[in-house]
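Hey, sorry to bother you again with one of my protein questions. I've been puzzling over a protein and I'd love to understand its fold better. Take your time with it, there's no hurry, and the full record follows here:
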Amino acid sequence: MSPISVIITIAAYFAILFTISYIAGRKADNAGFFVGNRKSSWYVVAFAMIGSSISGATYVSVPGMVGASNFGYLQMVLGFIAGQMIIAFVLTPLFYRMNLVSIYEYLENRFGMSSYRTGGLVLLYL
């Protein structure tokens, strides 16, 4: 492939991607992204959330990283899987029951504004 055809292919891909994003995102908000505007059941939203956090790069880079680290990175991958299952089957149903969109809303409702801000700062600096 010539360099110009690679550049044209990448430019066309991004043009299509941005067009679809613009059309689909005009009426979107946080509640739509995080909980499907409460029109979907919690388990559908949970699997969509996990799917959005996994990208094509994950399938390409993780096996190489596991092999390069002599399977040391595999522990982290297994931890990610366990964490995503906890989020999917514990936190998402809880958010649905409490009519929440994020963990920060839970912190604010349960412990107050200082806890909300502390949670944000912890995420920012980790």
Remarks:
- The chain is about 80% helix and 0% strand.
- Residues 73-98 form the longest helix (26 residues).
- The two ends are 42 Å apart (CA to CA).
- The CA atoms of residues 91 and 122 lie 19 Å apart.
